[in-house]
Design goal:
Blueprint lengths: L11 H9 L8 H9 L4 E4 L6 H11 L3 E5 L6 H10 L4 E4 L5 H12 L5 E4 L7 H9 L2 E6 L21 H5 L5 E5 L4 H10 L6 E4 L7 E7 L3 H12 L5 E4 L3 H13 L4 E4 L5 H13 L4 E4 L14 E4 L6 H8 L9 E7 L1 H12 L5 H19 L4 H8 L11 H4 L3 E4 L1 H18 L5 H8 L5 H5 L16 H13 L3 E4 L4 E4 L3 H5 L6 E4 L9 H4 L15 H18 L3 H4 L2 H9 L5 H4 L7 H16 L1
Parallel strand pairs: 1-6, 1-7, 2-4, 2-5, 3-4, 5-6, 8-13, 9-11, 9-12, 10-11, 12-13
Antiparallel strand pairs: 14-17, 15-16
Bound molecules: adenosine-5'-diphosphate (ADP) and zinc ion (ZN).
Length: about 600
Amino acid sequence: MDSLVDAQTEPPLAVLRRVFGYDAFRGEQREIIEHVVAGGDALVLMPTGGGKSLCYQIPALVRPGVAVVVSPLIALMQDQVDALTAVGARAGFLNSTQDLTERRRVEAAFVAGELDLLYLAPEALGSRSTVNLLDRGTIGLFAIDEAHCVAQWGHDFRPDYLALSMLHERWPDVPRIALTATATTATAAEIATRLDLTAARHFVASFDRPNIQYRIVPKREPRKQLLDLLRTEHPGDAGIVYCLSRASVDKTAEFLVRNGITALPYHAGLDAATRAANQQRFLREDGLVMVATIAFGMGIDKPDVRFVAHLDLPKSVEGYYQETGRAGRDGLPSTAWLAYGLQDVVQQRKMIESSDGDLARRRVLAAHLDAMLALCETVDCRRVRLLRYFGQDGSPCGNCDTCLTPPESWDGTVPAQKLLSTVLRLQRERNQKFGAGQCIDILLGRHTDKVKQYDHDSLTVFGIGGELSESEWRGVVRQLLAQGLLAVEGDYGTLVLTPASAEVLSRSRTVSMRREPERPASSSRAAKARSAGTPAVELPAGAEPLFERLRAWRAATAKEQGVPAYVVFHDATLRQIAADPPATLAELSRVNGVGENKLAKYGEQILATLAE
Ligand code: ADP
Ligand code: ZN
């Protein structure tokens, strides 16, 4: 097969249009591509869905030689190669899942310069034989995907990435582009140092994902709340549900299935074959819900994930941003929903306390958790908070729960003092420590068995907290924990005071708290209409059946070819076709996402489906 692009005559924009079928570059894509095509090094920070792939794929096509793409996820290499093949590019991968014949074939193609892109796992570069192989071909470019994996204190550190600094030493003339969707200023600096990219040009896009609606709700009956969300706002949609433990992944998946939702589990406790099969189904079928631990998701480039739900608190803002970022890559409206409660704080503080690692490491974990808690408890726009965390500015977005139904803040100093003095008295007068439940029962003046057993009704604080309900008291405890004015200890999550508690008890410090809105936000019509990049094509009345017919054609075609549906065409492309059906191939070629190769391959079939 011949090269797809004549580098002498075809500029990047022409390649974008002819090969990928898109009209225009997005954001800084053009500058990045021109810089790399000209042989420059680049560090690209761009959110998920921002369009990072094209930043190295177009240079790969335009520059002479083979682009070597380093990616940590071997399970997804096949899909990436399939997607490139579908637009007519020559791509291959080398990894441990291949048999020897296949490997030899790809190696030969690489050496002969018959590939545009070669995908490799980072560990492969640690092997002599791979390095020798690379020496036998002509490398046009190195692309380092998921570059944040090189950051040691980041949340996805992979030791194999550290060895990537050798690329530059061994092949000093080959330009390198490193890309990531996650980076605080500190992580970005670490990536640049470790990959020897400090002299590279840095491209930092806005981390805003305007089409994602962020919502954080108080956790009551999490599974039921989730089911409500899926039924009312996302029926039939594909989505990811994150849980902390394997057990809760299994239980949640079963619960959803029992309630008529097609859901699959994914966690490290399942055998590799089941994990791979479930991932395949999620990528290939429409409208599946994946219930998973955070072991799932990196590199998943399914464009039409409509929601990401967290049933447990993520450990860091970076993690939260990464995980929620998997929603809505196609730019269409999507939901990021998190249910969060007192138990989350107790559990995570406990996990940090009992984690191995030195004090410095535990401090880092605690700082990450504190930032996440601050995001949960904020009365300001969630998006502004998130962006600020990544060192970027924003103004209230109108598309997050705090913007849609603003919570009030209230002066919680007095309740805080009551709760803290209960903890203090138990400790001073009785030499006892208890969890939140018992403290709240005492404040509410409840004569429970446990209260009677410990004679807690004789404490002076007994019954002094009648002004708040039990769930409000839980909110008080949660927020005190979040603000570091109270701490938890031991296996039972008993409450203890912190140095800062004394300031509240001595009235030298006030405590501001968040009151949950009566009616939690749900996506309003206005918010639904928000989208990013490719504007959502509203299906006109009557076009729905046509869209469904196109989807059915796509499902059958994808199945026949053994590729994910989105490799054939994205939803956005099918919507555009259904909304304004083209009558000729020439008209069809003007639809976004219909490039030369797909037009030749599917054009007639699409027109036939429209004519049915
Ligand atoms: P990232 O890797 O940054 O998460 P992708 O490269 O997967 O993002 O791109 C996200 C989506 O946007 C993909 O569906 C891709 O085809 C589409 N896309 C990227 N660039 C453009 C563009 N210039 N015009 C239209 N669609 C684009
Ligand atoms: Zn907002």
